[in-house]
Amino acid sequence: MKPRTRSRVTGILGRVYLGAILLFLYAPILVMAAMSFNASEFYQLPFTFSTEWYERVWRNDLILNAAARSVWIAVVVTVVATVLGTAASVALWRYDFRGKRALQVLLFPPIAIPWLITGTAMLIFFFGVGIGRGTPAVIIGHVALALPYVIVVVTARLATFDRTLEEAARSLGARPWMVTRAVMLPWIAPGVIAGALFAFAVSFDQFVISYFLSEPGDSTLPVLIYTAIRKGFTPEINAISTIIIAVSMVVMLIAARFTKFGGER
Amino acid sequence: MAGGIARTDRLRAIALLSPAYLWLTVAVFLPLSAMAFFSIITDVPFGDTEWHVTGENYTAFLESPTYARLLLKSVLLGVKVTALCVLIGFPCAWVLAKMIKGRAREALFLMVILPFWSNSLVRIFSWAIVLRGNGVLDKTLSAIWPWPVKLNLLFTESAIVIGLVHSYLPYVILTAYLALQAIDDSLIEAARSLGAKWWTILWRIVLPLSAPGLIAGAVLVFVPVVGSFMEPRILGGRLGTYYGTVIEDQFVAVFNWPLGAALSFILLAVVLAILALASPVLRKART
Amino acid sequence: MSEVRVEGLSKHYGAARALDDVTLTFPDGGFFGLLGPSGSGKTTLLRAIAGFVEPTAGGVFIGDRPVVDVPVEAREIGMVFQNYALFPNMSVADNVAFGLRVRGTARGEIDKRVGDALELVQLGPLGARRPHELSGGQRQRVAMARAIVTRPRVLLLDEPLSALDKALRVDMQIELKRIQREVGITTIFVTHDQEEALTLSDRIGILKGGRLIREGRPQEVYSDPGDVFTARFLGEANVIEGTGSGDWLDLPGARVARPEGATTIAVRPEHLSVTVDRPDGPNALQARLRQRIFAGAMGTCVLDWNGQMLKAVARHEEFSDLPESGPVWVSWAPRHARGLKAD
Q1: pTM to 2 decimals?
Q2: Which residues of A touch B126 (CB under 8 A)?
Q3: Nearest of C220, C218, C140, C227 to residue C175 by alpha carbon
Q4: For residue A218, what is the domain's CATH number?
Q5: What is the ipTM score, two decimals?
């Protein structure tokens, strides 16, 4: 085969393959979204458009309460994790001290250890020290999971900050705090925003930790969905799931505008 | 004077770092340690229950072949899912990193990676709709195929594998993509100019150079899959008993926390062993 | 060893023409320098010969074999990349052996030829090192050894010295030339450094906007550039325009001898003399000396003639009688004026 023909053939094959992967990734989500607008309760075809299941979600206090709780928890987690994480990133970036490597390595376990282990360990410990189950426990757990993501994202942005800018500002007589506020924070703002959005997504989508830490009847949306699925699912779950996936994808699309997910852009 | 500056710097560093790390200590590291303690006592030490130190939670694991069998089953599931993710994801990362250029690549990369950051529970649930008997997959295949198809995949191991691959594939593509992008195109051109065919280039140049990234990605998929319980529950039904679901049961159904803690702790040991084995590679992949 | 030819070679990217109908022969065993500013198409031409660029039209021949439809890996070329492209996961010896291994050469033969190639580039004892443990010049040598060990029909060098610092670059130029002579391989190299091209090449080709505008031996092209672009690109040139009448070129306030029919002439800075008094004969212009620059053995005079800048270069002593600045006469022997085609 001529090189010309061959490179064209591989180019087409590559794109077809990529298309197949995207189909695999998105098809089930799209099917679920379509079914949430289907009138039939048992996914019967032909498809009849209906917003009945969304209306039912809107009238279901259990779902609405769980949704409100999920959002509220995610907002608190976002604020706490972003503030603590940004402070830690700045310190890790600015200061050199013994044990810095170790501190960076310690960010790894919350990400790498299966949530099942972390979640059950939290449950045991929080019971032992009297925090018990419930929303405060969920928030403590979510913040711990979100912190490493915030620190990684903000640190990546800090790495692109030109240290001589800070030195220049200091040589002009600016106090350290002024330097931080006037020079550094504006530069790392996109990283901080991206970190905050990651934190929101981690909390809003988190199921395993919430599952072990939330009290029955006082659960977050994903926990409610899990319970409902195990009882036998209804199209209402499709509707609320479609909303959730839309929210988290939009949040991550916005985050993508501020960070590059580690890829070259 | 120099000492004074160093001291204020140290104080600032401590002030900035301690909130985050205290939080991690309270929420992650102390709980993991507490679990070690819990795994060697007879009953929950809350209220006025009687408890004492014992090794029987671990001997339970050793005496009943069920737990070891389930752990093995979970590990095998992890191997299957990881292998599939790498086999499917690596070529996809190759297409993205080396065959598509410019803005299209940026957009496609985002599309591939986006599902990973959306709700995993909901994505697993969406497969339940697709795979159920006489569901969307069966209907679509029947429409394309000349004779009726009854795959009825839901509540089989295949369903669990499909769901988990779907969950973690974007992550493998991400790590493989980063590793491949770090390989300079001129290395591949140099190999071609020296007469190497594509399989030689893949085997001698591309795979060795991207191995750290690939292995890191594989480990970070394998570990959570071994500890999965939600996916087997939803997609596996009664078949979906794995090591993770047994641990879940100890905490939410049977309420045998010490046994759950012991089982969890054994899983943690397995996970830590794997991470430790892979740590030279993980460190290399990060730099 | 083979002669390499391109015939009517074009490469278009949409409306942009990276290469536009280039026909050129690279003589067997010669050292051919492709020279041009960035975007001139020189790298595209080299990559088309290598096979990394598919031409839109035209042919490439290595020996008498047409290779447009032959993939890179079957073209029997050796190539040295700008960044050397050494395989970081292999030792120096494994890098050099790579091309022989993929050809299935016997192990003993590989060891011998790798050893010889490393001797040739004077890296005999470093075979076990990794590329990242080498200096820039050493990497360059490994890349050379790797490219020639397979005994390719043509050696392609893509800006091979641009990553080195100035002093090392001069040493490596001498090395490159020695290695090429010893091996006797047809070599084509791309550079934007005109001095490097003049030093190394037996022949040079100058590209501009995808077209080959001049080709020849370096001395020929330098002494008779033929057009304004080449005159300015290859070395420095004082380009003077006037209106022709008979054997003469009329300039504002002066009349100078002109080569046959030319209205634009070029005089190299080393051919201009600068004097305080008016010299005998024609070809003298009255100008102002703006600045004298001392640069070791050589000196430069920067002159202003009717608002146009002229440059004169000579051994430093020749300018010692001149004032720091002021009115002077600039002159040249008629045989040093070259007629140029306008751009």
Answers
A1: 0.85
A2: 28-29, 31-32, 241
A3: C140
A4: 1.10.3720.10
A5: 0.87
